[in-house]
Every structure is written in C-alpha cells, then in structure tokens.
Write a structure and sequence with these properties.
The protein is an alpha/beta fold. The chain has 9 helices and 10 strands. The protein has a single domain, classed as 3-Layer(aba) Sandwich (Rossmann fold), CATH 3.40.50.300. The strands form 2 sheets. A 6-stranded mixed sheet has the order 6-7-8-3-9-10, with helices on both faces. The model has no long low-confidence stretch (mean pLDDT about 90). Bound molecules: adenosine-5'-triphosphate and magnesium ion. It comes from Paenibacillus mucilaginosus 3016.
C-alpha cells in the first residue's frame, strides 16, 4: 500500500461555544492522514459545534487546531477550504433553484477557474452516478437522499485532503445510506483523503471508521480503535 496522502487534523484542548456559553470545554482529538474517524455523542453535546470550530466558523477561546502539520487556530475560514478541507454541514445544503451542475460548481473558489472550465470531474460521477443523470435538474427537485449525495459530491469536486461530514446519513433511506457508506469505503481504500465524520450509529463506527471518539458535556469521554467497540 502507498503512503496516505490525506492531511491530518489535531485538536488540542479546544474550548469553544456561543457567546459566554462554552459548549466544548476541553477537546483533544486527532485524525491521522488517510484515517476515517467517527465522532459520536448524544444530541446537543456539541458535535456540530466542533466541526464549525474546525472550519473557523466559530473562534476557539482556548486550544489549538493544527491541519497538515500547520497551525490553523487563527486562520480565517476561507484559508481552510483553500488548504483542502471539505465540509458538508448537517441537514440539507442544496440550493433548490440552482441545477445540480450549478450546485456542484458552487463550492469552487475563483482560483479553481480551470476546474470550473473543465466541468465536473469524472471521479465525482463515478462515486455518485445518479447525479450525472440529473445534472440539469433543479436541486430542489431531487429527493432528500439525492440532495444529501449532492452536498457530499460538491465537497469532493475539488478533491479535499480532509473531509468533514456532519451526519451525512441522517434521515435518508437505507439504500442511499449504503451508497454513501460505499463512497466513504472507497475514500478510505484510496487513502488520499482523511475523513472526520459525525455519525450516531454504532454500526458505522464499527464497520468503516478506523477510530472513534465520544463527546459528552464538553469533553471526550471515550475513544478507541473501532475494532474495540
Ligand atoms: P445533534 O446531534 O442534535 O446534531 P450536536 O451534538 O451537533 O447535536 P450542536 O449543534 O453542536 O450539537 O449544539 C451544541 C449546543 O450548542 C446545543 O446546546 C445548542 O443548543 C447550542 N447551539 C448550537 N448552535 C448555536 C448557536 N448558533 N447559538 C447558540 N447556541 C447554539
Ligand atoms: Mg449536530
């Protein structure tokens, strides 16, 4: 096997929240290059807050965020996307009036003009064939599961080195859950991307993830290799 080319993430003693209320109190977590890591925890414990903090949408009060061996704690959000962090937020993230194609190209920076001219790369359609058939349809006309595939596909267009997925299987039917699992399996096998994924189901953590963390009351209360679950 070749060397993993995904970029690692290291959070150390992260403290973050909204205004005065600190949701993350002291969170340390590592995603190694090429690894698939699952973040679990009950509703409202701060899993999404953690991802938003990694993306720079929330400024940490304390602690550090390192990505690809560099300190990103104080970098503005757009620097993270440019540096190859893809982010799929929780819930539907599709613009209903734009076509599938427009939705897919939306994530590209002006700097990616070349990619924009070349159109949607084939590797995206290889992962989500249904999107190719629907390329000219409006985002809003897709089913919930198809929209979820579209959000993930958008993050993959620019081939991120680290992919953050916030509950991508939430509220979708089992067959599409399997499609998304298959995509994550193929990312894992290629080891060209690291994945941090929020997912409540134990079965995912045990079947696909290499490592898991459980968040509760602002701290990591359990972690380990998925084989130990
Ligand atoms: P779920 O499993 O339901 O997605 P979660 O673990 O992702 O939950 P977060 O969305 O991170 O939880 O929310 C953590 C806490 O922060 C909750 O108590 C929530 O009410 C609060 N919170 C979330 N977003 C905001 C916001 N924009 N302003 C203030 N408080 C917020
Ligand atoms: Mg959440």
């Amino acid at each position: 096997a070749g060397q993993a080319s995904g970029a690692g993430l290291e959070l150390k003693h992260l403290e973050a929240g909204y205004g005065e209320s600190m949701i993350l109190r002291d969170v340390s977590l590592t995603v190694k290059p090429g690894q698939v890591v699952c973040l679990m925890g009950r509703n409202g414990v701060g899993k999404s807050t953690l991802m938003k903090t990694v993306m720079g949408l929330i400024k940490p009060k304390r602690g550090t965020i390192a990505y690809g061996g560099q300190n990103y704690t104080k970098q503005p959000p757009d620097r993270r996307a440019k540096a190859g962090i893809g982010y799929v937020p929780q819930g539907r993230d599709v613009f209903p009036q734009l076509t599938v194609e427009e939705n897919l190209l939306l994530g590209l920076e002006a700097a990616d003009a070349k990619l924009r001219r070349a159109g949607i790369p084939q590797h995206v359609f290889d992962k989500f064939p249904v999107l190719k058939e629907m390329i000219h349809r409006k985002g809003g006309d897709l089913s919930g599961g198809q929209q979820q595939q579209l959000s993930i596909a958008r993050a993959l267009v620019s081939e991120p080195k680290l992919l953050l997925l916030d509950e991508p299987m939430e509220g979708i039917q089992p067959s599409i859950v399997m499609d998304i699992e298959r995509v994550i399996e193929s990312i894992k096998a290629s080891r060209t991307m690291s994945v941090l994924l929020i997912e409540q189901s134990l079965s995912f953590a045990t079947s696909i993830a290499d490592y898991y963390y459980v968040l509760d009351k602002g701290v990591i209360v359990a972690e380990g290799s998925s084989a130990d679950l």
